[in-house]
Amino acid sequence: MQILAPVLSTDVRNRAKDYLRLAIAKAAVGQNGGSDEALAFFKSRWGRSVNLPAVEKAAFAPNRRSAVSPGTFNDTGGGAWGSELAAQRQLADAFGEVLRARTVIDRLPAARPVPFNIAAPTQTAGATARWTSEGSAFQLSPITYVSTTLAPAKIGGVAVASTDLVRLSDPSADTLIRRDLEAVAVEFSDVSFLNPSLAPVDGQQPGAVTYGATTIESSGSTAAAARLDFRRLFDAVAGDLTGAVVIMRKRTAVGLASMGPPFDTVTAVGGTLWGLPVLVSEAAPVDGNSPAEDTVTLLDSAELLIADDGIEVAAFTEGDVQLNDSPDSPWTGSTPIASLWMSNLIAFRMTRFVAWKLRRADAVALLVGARYAE
Closest Cα partner for 307 from 354, 350, 343, 260? Predict the structure, then answer.
């Protein structure tokens, strides 16, 4: 089975664009501007949007409320409010769907979704069976479970642009900002998921699925060496591999594909290897050798628990930021900061609430030192 990136409909892509455009409009008018001003700004730039009715409702989502009547999704009740919230959610979900089409985490075929902070049973020992003759007792065996809880964790990124860029440039400014936010979210998610040096930190981040994984050293760069490497890699992962995927960099995929059978089913964008889907990601780690060599991850995604509470994007024109890709946390007296208002800047913040954990440590293995067909 080959896993291809989902083909997103034009409607989804347009709703994702308008979600960020509405955030831009709200930021552009500033805190002194209300929903009417933000909507007017949106219409002046993107007034031909097919999602304009949803945008009009979403623009007023924070401040339309009734003190008496309950809200409804279609505004057919007496309260005549609530559909604004549904419209805002639809736009936000579309933005999240665009991101999920690109990340390794969201392309796993058999990962098990679970809620945050809810104990999920994990089986550690299963029942057994045997042949039983007439009149004989059936075998009794226990099924052992332990509870696993995924604590909330979040990935955050900030992109900063000048207010003049947003207000005065042609409408493609939102495309530049959207691509920047998407790129930082995809890269960081995949690096955090795959980098074997990233240990779990309580209250902050889940560890990479490859942290502490069994490691296989590559035996060489030839086709014979590659066959041996992958046999050893497959042997290192327990289970039937029905939900397994092979994750590698594009360079590795192209090198394998150039070797011919049995690697001719691998392509630069994925393909399969011995019947398992190949996921290509430039976030797949390289090792510490000089020159750096690639790694390949074999992961049984059926043994992976994932809690995901969605993606949010917010825009701000007031507050202080560190214009630094390695910010101080917490800030100190010597931390250089910039005022968004004084510097005429808009900050766009992307937040994704996500965490993961393997049910079994032997559900993943790592091949290091891979440099094939060189």
Answer: 354
| DSSP sequence for 114-149 | --TT--EEEEEE--------TTPPPP----EEEEE-
Half-sphere exposure of 364 (CA within 13 A, CB side): 25
Residue for token digits 């207010």?
163
E-strand ranges in 21-137 read 112-113, 120-125
The helix (H) or strand (E) run that includes residue 239 is none
Taking a C-beta distance cutoff of 8 angstroms, is the pair 112, 307 a contact? no
Encoded amino acid at 271, one letter: G
Name the 3-class secondary structure at 63: coil
Residues 6 or more apart in contact with residue 147 via CB below 8 angstroms: 119, 120, 121, 122
pLDDT tens series, the chain, 374 aa: 555 444 456 665 667 677 777 777 777 776 566 777 788 877 877 777 877 777 777 765 544 444 444 444 444 444 444 444 444 445 455 555 555 556 888 889 999 999 888 887 766 666 677 787 877 777 777 766 677 888 889 888 787 878 777 666 555 666 667 777 777 777 888 889 999 999 999 888 999 999 999 999 999 999 999 999 999 999 999 988 989 999 999 999 999 999 999 999 999 999 999 999 999 998 888 876 656 789 999 999 999 999 988 777 777 878 888 877 777 777 777 788 888 888 888 888 888 889 999 988 899 999 999 988 66
> In the Cβ-directed half-sphere of 251, how many Cα atoms lie within 13 Å?
15
If phi over 0 gives left and psi between -120 and 50 gives alpha, with beta otherwise, what is residue 42? alpha
List the domain boundaries for the chain.
10-101, 112-148, 154-374
251 vs 58: CA distance, rounded Å: 44
CB 83 within 8 A of CB 72: yes
Residue 230: how many other CB atoms lie within 10 Å = 23
Q: Which two tokens stand for residue 288?
A: 């510490």
What is the distance of C-alpha 178 from the center of its chain?
A: 15
Strand partners, 248: 280
Per-residue DSSP letter, 353: E
Q: What is the Cα–Cα distance from 98 to 132, expressed in whole angstroms?
A: 54
| Per-residue tokens: 46 | 């993107």
